[in-house]
Amino acid sequence: MKVTDYFEKSESTLVSFEVLPPLKGGSMDAIFKTLDPLMEFKPPFVDVTYHREEFIYKKKDSGYYEKTSIRKRPGTVGICAAIMHRYGVDAVPHLICGGFTKDDTENVLIDLAFLNINNVLALRGDARKFDGKFVSQPGGHAFALDLVKQITDMNNGAYLDQNIQNGNKTEFCIGVAGYPEKHFESPNMDMDLHFTKLKVDAGADYIVTQMFFDNQFYFDYVKRCREAGITVPIVPGLKPLTKRYQLNSLPRLFYTQMPSDLVNAVNAAKDDQAVKQVGIDWCTAQSKELKEFGVPCLHYYTMGDSKIIQKIVEGVY
Ligand code: FAD
């Protein structure tokens, strides 16, 4: 079923989760270990992230370094199929522009449609560490907007090869990313919302937000989206802070601000366990307020730690 159909059919706030593929060499058991305890909350869908290849420098016998490309976390499509098979819930693969030509994208979408995976989250993707800024694949898309357009074309039966007449019309429900604190590359929120609206006009059915720790950012974001004519559901993405160093690393990695009350509580916590509890309490309070506000779904970034997410969801429902 489509993600947006779940939203339409449910009278209360749903719960969903995002998982990361295990590092190459790992097994599906890691994913099942994360998800098994969370299934009691009956998530209608589970997202699986996608990770572009990274460059690493390997030292050779000669002493010189060789630039090598590796995919650290492959397997998104296979994991989605395994999740659907094991739990009977929908899986939402993240699909990125980085590392894909348009042909690669079309072929992945065909695989997904054949597997009856009819939901995707369409993203540009992060920059590779050594690139500094996002570099698109030659023959690929530079923005999520163009990826959304390609998926919409396939939903209309149009494939890259224009000789294909009356192609199978795929039925993808398309999610896209939104940023309550603005995407870091955008000059301002107006510009960011302009491009977000273009993604929706091009066929995106819903938005999932970047994590935030102050709900006011989400409330303001929803208001501004509605004023800008963006009417699709906006799902808040939530991640609990679990370690002291995240006070600095989360703002650096995700361009999110930490409210003073949260920072003070973490600084006052006497040990790692106390920090974890602060993070759980904070995320539980955030979730309760968002549920009260009537959000369609609370979407948790599990980062492989189901125990913490379990405690939070138990505290909310
Ligand atoms: P876009 O919508 O393309 O926007 C990127 C920037 O370009 C923005 O500043 C936007 O305002 C601007 N822009 C957009 N369109 C245009 C245009 N036509 N012309 C000029 N400027 C434009 N990354 C991964 O690698 N894998 C994942 O699995 C993953 N999952 C994510 C899940 C969620 C819910 C979120 C919020 C992010 C996720 N990311 C993931 C990170 C994401 O790839 C990065 O935030 C990336 O920097 C931007 O992606 P986007 O889809 O928002 O890009």
Verbal overview:
With 317 residues, this protein is α/β, with parallel strands linked by helices. It has a single domain, classed as TIM Barrel, CATH 3.20.20. The protein has eleven helices and eleven strands. The protein has helices at 3-9, 28-35, 76-87, 102-114, 144-155, 189-201, 215-227, 246-254, 260-268, 272-293, 306-316, and strands spanning 14-19, 45-48, 54-59, 65-70, 90-96, 119-123, 173-178, 206-209, 234-235, 237-238, 297-301. It has a nine-stranded parallel β-sheet, sandwiched between helices. Strands 3-4 form a two-stranded antiparallel ribbon. Helix 9 runs antiparallel to helix 10 (272-293) and helix 10 (272-293) packs across helix 11 (306-316). It is globular and about 65 Å long. The two termini are 24 Å apart. The model has no long low-confidence stretch (mean pLDDT 96). Flavin-adenine dinucleotide (FAD) binds next to strand 5, helix 5 and helix 6.
Strand content: 15-25%
Classify the helix fraction into a percent range.
Answer: 40-55%
Kindly name the structural category. Answer: alpha/beta
Q: In the CATH hierarchy, what is the architecture at level 2?
A: Alpha-Beta Barrel
Count of separate structural domains: 1
Which sequence of SSEs, written as H and E, runs from N to C? HEHEEEHEHEHEHEHEEHHHEH
The third-level CATH topology is TIM Barrel
CATH class: Alpha Beta
